[in-house]
Request: fold
Amino acid sequence: MKQANELNIKLFGDGADIDSILELYKKPYIKGFTTNPTLMRKAGISDYQDFAKKLVKAVPDRPISFEVFADDFSEMERQAMIISEWGKNVYVKIPITNTKREPSYPLTEKLAGRGLQLNVTAMMTLTQVAETAKCLQKSPSSYISVFAGRIADTGLDPVPMMAAAIELMRPYPKLELIWASPRELLNIYQAESIGCHIITVTPDVLKKLSLVGKDLDNYSLETVQMFYDDGKKAGFNL
Reply:
């Protein structure tokens, strides 16, 4: 199997802990970063703009996606314009719908026409992919983010859907497909195999890259050793 630096797919770090992000920034195979309001809240961030500007200053040469957090489309538009000014490497994340199930297609098309780099997020259907791709035609560069991991959580295999999404996007060379919310290291290789452009990966999954190519007999022995050691430490007896 390929090592991280041999992959054709771009690995984007996904998170909001600035120390973890800066550690990942040292690795040349990490090609960009994404975050969202949920990750930022978990990281204890209270000043969105301050965090974002510090991050852009620390990571000036790789794409970073920041998400709007409004539910009204006019307010989303206002926030998007502010976010887009934070740096040339900034992509503005727009949710595929608001909480009222109203699609964001008109806003996406409007912002793309203004030349914003967008990351349309939280998609889970091919209809969403097809309609969004049309709306992004005038964008200089944008991402279509499909939450393959969440699709898998419903019991569906996301690989055929992601492969179909690639085909739908083929007429739009300025657009890139993101395999979002991966659940395991294998997802990186699944995404690579179908020609997906980008996969967002959390630090926990990235840590497992050291296991690529590991001898399975040795891995089996290490697992047995772990069980034995923990049994001893627990003081179990029968």
